[in-house]
Specification:
elongated, 58% helix, alpha+beta, 3 helices
Length: 122
């Protein structure tokens, strides 16, 4: 619902069946998402240590973890800024006012059955 205010999104790309797909997640929950992305390669590394064999190269996994940690650091900083921007500019209240104004203007010219009223004023 629009009255809840702006919802910033975190965009990410991933490979699915040979195609790059772009997805979004609410920005405030992106930290949890990135942490999960970090956990998965760590599990691969742990499995490699236990088995001694793996399909994944250890250096590639470590680079992936390092890149994800950088992404998390960037998210952490930008989330503070995005959150402050939304709060300092009162965007949720503004969005609510715009929705109420729209409802008033939209409903004002309708009768009780939802049909549009027309007047022949000159």
């Amino acid at each position: 619902m629009y009255a809840r205010g702006p919802k910033p999104k975190y965009r990410y790309a991933h490979l699915h069946e040979g195609h790059v797909e772009v997805e979004t997640v609410d920005y405030q929950f992106a930290g949890v998402f990135i942490k999960e992305q970090i956990r998965q390669p760590r599990l691969k590394l742990k499995a490699k240590d236990e088995d001694g064999t793996s399909l994944y190269e250890e250096d590639d996994i470590r680079k992936e973890i390092e890149e994800l940690n950088k992404n998390y650091d960037v998210w952490e900083q930008t989330w503070k800024e995005v959150k402050a921007f939304i709060e300092n500019n009162d965007l949720q209240d503004f969005t609510m006012q715009v929705c109420v104004d729209f409802q008033y203007l939209f409903c004002r010219n309708r009768d009780q059955h939802g049909a549009r009223k027309f007047s022949m004023r000159t």
